[in-house]
Amino acid sequence: MTETATVTLNEPVHDNGDSHTNGVHHANGDCQTNGDLQDAFVDRVPISANTPELVPGLVDQVASLGKVASVRDHTDRTTLLEAARSLVYALETPRGAMIRYCWSQSTLYASVETGVDLGLFAILSKDEKPKSAAELAKATGADPVLLARILKHLCAMGVILETGPNEYRRKGISISLSLQRYSDAYPCMTNCITSGILALPAQLKKDGYTNPSNGKECSFQRGFRTDLHFFEFMKENPEAASQFNNHMSAYHQGRPSWMDVGFYDVPSLFSNVTQDDVLLVDVGGSVGHDLSEFRRKWSDAPGRLVLQDLPDVIAQAKTGQLHPSIEAMEYDFFTEQPIKGARAYYMHSVLHDWTDDNCRKILKGLVDVMKRGHSNVLINENVIPDTNAYWETTSLDIIMMADFASTERTEAHWHQLVGSAGLKITKIWSAQRGVESLIECELA
């Protein structure tokens, strides 16, 4: 045993002056037991900053960025935000983090969802004028005492602004929550996502901590007490399905699209394509958001655009605002692909719903109809980096683990998966951290 024991804390650990035979000897001659040292850690670590050595550098970084960053510029804003978030994590104590994880997140969620159900945010966001808790209670029909308690928590967690005692006004997030496209995210998670995530620890323990691989025997079924796969469950719960679609729409808003100039070389798809040829098949393309975007951004593109999904979804697409030039086709991607030799077969956030075995079936169905030297596959999905992964992507990975027994994949995983189906990746096109890449594949 060495003569000195080093404890990395904000302040030194001293013993109580007692002498013990089974002790740790310090350079000053004091003797401290292993038990005392453990007690010191227990007493001091939970109330000390997590990584105090990082604080000075992060303070300088935030201050420097704050002087030059434009909050209207996405890159500037997110760079400053991530530096500020890192500073908070460095300053936060383990005790503070524990309370934040265990208390604030679940209670905030419950408060926001209650506010959504009451129509609170729509009332609060009508104008910039501050509104009292009593006024808001009268407008929503809620018990004044109850609502005042919820409003205080919403304020404490940054959802609304406090302008005086029991008086509040709107801010950006509360304005967004007044719109169903955004507010649907909260009942959506309650109705079809969160219970599966909360059941994940018990399910993993039951399965001996093996990686989930069966979408009909995962924590989703445990959490929602059902035998149905997620998609079967959604079919029987149309309200949850509608909320889910709104949530996904809001999730994708404002994010770079592979169709944008400077992301992917879209004109490269146009070579050797006539007006009668199929340019792009959106496999499992829901109600056609992506193809409609493509038609808007590339109105002069040659060839046909084909939307494929299950009958119920296609029926919904036809009643929506699908561009008349887009062909809507009923199709199950586990069956034979009816469109042969298209220039590109495109899938957006499809494969992350499925295990590798099912993904191989989907991809092999495309391999069988591709024309060598002409057809390619475009996979619009997350590619998790080996380091510095983004929290939105890792969060989604855990959601997919819990509710689908599937995964967000790394670059190595993507190469292995597409290779096993008879394809090879020619290039992975990326725009910015945390945004889905475009994985371009051709026949191997």
Automatic annotation (TrEMBL):
O-methyltransferase dimerisation domain mapped to chain residues: 113-163
Organism: Penicillium desertorum
PROSITE patterns named among the record's database cross-references: SAM_OMT_II
Pfam family, one: Dimerisation
Gene Ontology BP terms: methylation; secondary metabolite biosynthetic process
UniProt GO molecular function: O-methyltransferase activity; protein dimerization activity
Protein name from the UniProt record: O-methyltransferase domain-containing protein
Keyword annotations: Methyltransferase, S-adenosyl-L-methionine, Transferase
Region feature Disordered, mapped onto this chain: 1-30
Domain of life (superkingdom): Eukaryota
The O-methyltransferase C-terminal domain, residue ranges: 217-423
